[in-house]
Design goal:
The complex is a heterodimer of chains A (78) and B (658). Chain A is of the alpha+beta class and 78 residues long. Chain A has a single domain, classed as Ferrous iron transport protein A (FeoA) (SH3 type barrels), CATH 2.30.30. Chain A is built from 2 helices and 6 strands. Chain A has helices at 23-31, 67-71, and strands at 2-3, 13-17, 39-45, 52-56, 61-65, 74-76. A 6-stranded antiparallel beta sheet of chain A has the order 1-6-2-3-4-5. In chain A, a hairpin with a 4-residue loop joins strand 4 and strand 5. The radius of gyration of chain A is 11 Å and the shape is globular. The relative contact order of chain A is 0.34. Chain B is of the alpha/beta class and 658 residues long. Chain B folds into 3 domains: 3-154, P-loop containing nucleotide triphosphate hydrolases (Rossmann fold), CATH 3.40.50; 170-251, Helix Hairpins, CATH 1.10.287; 275-654, no CATH class. Chain B contains 30 helices and 11 strands. In chain B, the strands form 3 sheets. A 6-stranded mixed beta sheet of chain B has the order 2-3-1-4-5-7, with helices on both faces. Chain B has a two-stranded antiparallel sheet with strand order 6-8. In chain B, a hairpin with a 2-residue loop joins strand 10 and strand 11 (527-528). In chain B, helix 13 (273-319) runs antiparallel to helix 14 (323-341), helix 13 crosses helix 21 (441-467) and helix 14 packs antiparallel against helix 26 (571-579). Chain B is elongated, with a radius of gyration of 28 Å. Classes of the chains: A alpha+beta (78), B alpha/beta (658). At the A-B interface, helix 1, strand 3 and strand 5 of A face helix 3, helix 11, helix 12, helix 16 and strand 9 of B. Strand 5 (61-65) of chain A pairs antiparallel with strand 9 of chain B, so a sheet runs across the interface.
């Protein structure tokens, strides 16, 4: 298992671990369709280590989260 | 009896557009999560009841002050029915909330919005099957154009229905029954028990204080499940929504690069994103002041100081009114109110562009672009949006801070909001910039806005280090909705909604203030109709002026107008117009001998920073809920203003400026 932050742009990956991020962030991500087992990819990285834009591929839902949080999200490459 | 219908849905689903369609009222519409900052109530067409527009939520469990409004409303306020609006292009996500509403068992109807967008993405929803699965009425609507909205309204139903029951599995169902027994709730309140187990904060607070045993029931369940109850419930709900989607949605076609992707590639570009954002801001000011606002204001001013003044003057002479009344109306009311009214065009244009940026979806991108910088001062990218709204008016800006989840960040955002240069300060800049910096107006005004932002960030850094007793992580997650072309009618309505407050102030605060100031200027210790510099106003202003000498504008006129500016910042201009007994266009001529470009800039900086206006202080009091914090938030600016203006004037002089 690796961290979402380490994934290259546009590489589809499955979220495998959301347990290490803040409880509120996890709930909001789940409410927006980013649950364990779903397929996501990084769409963009903002400059100066700014937030990542990630997409839930199936729902075409986009959100922005910080890199420090993305680092704590476990993913597997299918 | 009036029916009360609540309008509920996810953010960015067109809820407020639907509200506008159904009520014909002027509620503001936004396209970044959290623009509906207050409960808005409108009369439904045909006078069949009231519609309550609630803030958008993804879940009934609130993370921000904004979302808590919805949970509290559903628990505590009386209502007869609900409209749930669903974005068809984000069907599964929206259905999570719908399920929770169905479980409540209150009368409910669903408006399926953006069916056209969904079909464009190859998503087809079978309405008949959806109705069957959910056992409620579903109406396809297009809130932007109004298609289908009347049907939704005419089939409004408030007859009770049975709560929807989703089986959460044996252990959980037992726990639900135990909670209902322990709290004395009936089967109809099953949803309360489910919300409790799902971790809803508002409900946990209520249940655990009245019946502490519920906590043990939940813990026992978690032991049986071997995981958190909320994780289990969320998963069951997700399985259900997936199943529903599987049965009613027919999806075809592969994904392709959408317009949103192409725009995002430019405006959130790693390198160009920031310059583009500042270009957008600069263009906004340039168009507002140089291209559209200023010419329109000049036209209006010509009309007010020309035909209106001379017409009123000759009419009053014709009627044979006393010189007191003539002076009051011409020098007091027309000069004072007129001096502010001429800025209405500029303010409309500014609000128009702010509404445009909100409705298009660009604001959600601004949160990304700015997050890194805001983090440096202990805030997050979301705090920047209330700050931009504050450019229009600090009052809605401060209310928009409710969308910032972290309490510490919300308080700091409120504290620094008054440094955002609101549109009421514009008339002051406009007069001084036109008089002293005629060729660089947009640049000078932009520099003041920037000064406000920079000082706000410094203040944020200081407040954060004072308030952050325990260093908690901040929460940053922003939905990035697809871009949408703002709809003309909606744009006009939201512009008007924001700008009308300014026009109303001209008729109340500024009218009253003008008459009062004129009276102070007209009377003095020696009686009525005294020379201006022997008036009461000159005496009061003179005391303040001695303190202002080091800042470069130690005249009683400046002192007096700054005092009156607390009522509303734009009154500073009315006061000056009254003091110098001229109209706004001639005010320049009166100011030229008194100010230099340097002292004019120092004065503008002082006006930007010194105190929030009365209305802003009132809203700060309401939002922070503490008198002590309100005092701090209202008065620290005075010290900042003094220091900054002193530095501008004294350092400027050292460099030989005048």
């Amino acid at each position: 298992m690796s961290s979402l932050l380490a994934m290259p742009l546009h590489q589809p990956v499955l979220i495998s671990d959301l347990t290490r991020i803040d409880d509120r962030l996890r709930r909001r991500m789940i409410a927006l369709g980013f649950y364990e087992g779903c397929s996501v990819r990084i769409k963009r990285r903002a400059i100066f280590s700014g937030p990542l834009t990630i997409e839930q591929i199936e729902h075409q839902q986009m959100i922005a989260i910080r890199r420090c949080d993305a680092e704590q999200i476990g993913v597997i490459v299918p | 009896m009036t029916q009360r219908i609540a309008l509920i849905g996810n953010p960015n689903t067109g809820k407020t557009s639907l509200f506008n369609r159904l009520t014909g009222s002027f509620a503001h519409v936004g396209n970044w999560a959290g623009v509906t900052i207050e409960q808005k109530i409108g009369q439904l067409h045909g006078n069949i009841g009231q519609l309550i527009d609630l803030p958008g939520v993804y879940d009934l469990d609130p993370l921000s002050a904004d979302e808590a409004i919805v949970s509290r409303f559903l628990l505590q306020e009386p209502f007869d029915g609900m409209f749930n609006i669903i974005d068809a292009s984000q069907f599964e996500r929206n259905l999570q909330l719908t399920l929770q509403l169905l479980e409540m068992g209150r009368p409910l109807q669903i408006g399926l919005n953006m069916v056209d967008v969904a079909e464009g993405r190859g998503i087809h929803i079978n309405l008949e099957r959806l109705k069957e699965r959910l056992d409620v009425d579903v109406f396809p609507i297009t809130a932007r154009t109004g298609a289908g909205c009347e049907v939704l309204l005419s089939s409004l139903r408030t007859t009770p229905r049975e709560p929807f029951v989703l089986d959460y599995g044996e252990e959980t169902e037992q726990a639900i029954q135990q909670i209902l027994e322990a709290t004395g709730l009936g089967e109809r309140d099953r949803w309360v028990a489910i919300q409790y187990l799902a971790g809803n904060r508002v409900i946990s607070e209520q249940l655990e204080s009245s019946t502490p045993t519920v906590n043990e029931i939940r813990k026992a369940l978690e032991v049986k499940l071997g995981r958190f109850a909320h994780a289990h419930i969320t998963e069951r709900r997700r399985d259900w929504t997936k199943d529903v989607r599987h049965h009613v949605v027919d999806q075809q076609g592969a994904q392709q690069a959408t317009v949103t992707d192409r725009i995002d590639a430019v405006v959130t570009h790693p390198i160009w994103g920031l310059p583009i954002f500042f270009t957008v801001l600069y263009a906004l000011f340039h168009i507002t002041f140089n291209w559209i606002g200023a010419p329109l204001s000049d036209l209006l001013d010509g009309f007010l100081s020309g035909p209106v003044t001379s017409g009123t003057s000759s009419l009053l002479q014709l009627l044979g009114t006393s010189s007191f009344i003539q002076a009051l109306l011409i020098d007091g009311v027309i000069a004072g109110v007129g001096g502010v009214l001429v800025f209405v065009p500029q303010i409309f244009v500014l609000f128009f562009f702010i509404s445009f940026l909100e409705d298009s979806g660009y604001m959600a991108r601004v949160a990304i672009v700015m997050d890194r910088f805001m983090q440096l001062v202990g805030l997050n990218g979301k705090s920047f949006i209330p700050m931009i709204i504050g450019f229009g008016c600090n009052v809605p800006g401060i209310m928009a801070a409710r969308t910032v989840e972290e309490e510490r960040e919300r308080l700091v955002t409120i504290f620094i909001s008054p440094f955002m240069s609101c549109s009421a300060r514009l008339p002051i800049y406009a007069v001084f910039a036109a008089s002293f910096f005629a060729s660089n107006q947009a640049l000078v005004v932009l520099s003041l806005y920037m000064l406000g932002i920079v000082l706000a960030l410094i203040a944020a850094k200081i407040f954060t280090s004072v308030l952050a007793a325990e260093d908690r992580n901040s929460l940053f997650i922003v939905e990035q909705p697809p871009y949408r072309v703002p709809q003309g009618l909606t744009l006009w309505r939201s512009t008007w909604q924001k700008a009308k407050g300014f026009v109303r102030k001209a008729g109340t605060f500024i009218f009253g203030g003008s008459v009062f100031i004129w009276l102070l200027a007209y009377s003095g210790p020696a009686g009525m109709d005294v020379p201006m510099n022997e008036s009461f106003l000159a005496m009061v202003g003179g005391v303040v002026a001695t303190l202002l000498v080091p800042l470069g504008f130690g005249t009683w006129q400046a002192g007096a107008s700054l005092i009156t500016g607390f009522l509303a910042k734009e009154v500073v201009v009315s006061t000056m117009a009254i003091i110098y007994a001229v109209s706004e266009s001639d005010l320049s001529a009166s100011l030229l001998p008194v100010f230099t470009p340097l002292s004019a800039y120092s004065f503008m900086a002082f006006v930007l920073l010194y105190v929030p206006c009365l209305a802003t202080v009132a809203v700060i009091r309401r939002e922070v809920g503490s008198a002590k914090l309100t005092w701090v938030a209202s008065l620290y600016g005075l010290g900042v203003a003094y220091v900054v203006s002193l530095m501008i004037y004294q350092i400027g002089r050292l460099f030989g400026l005048s």
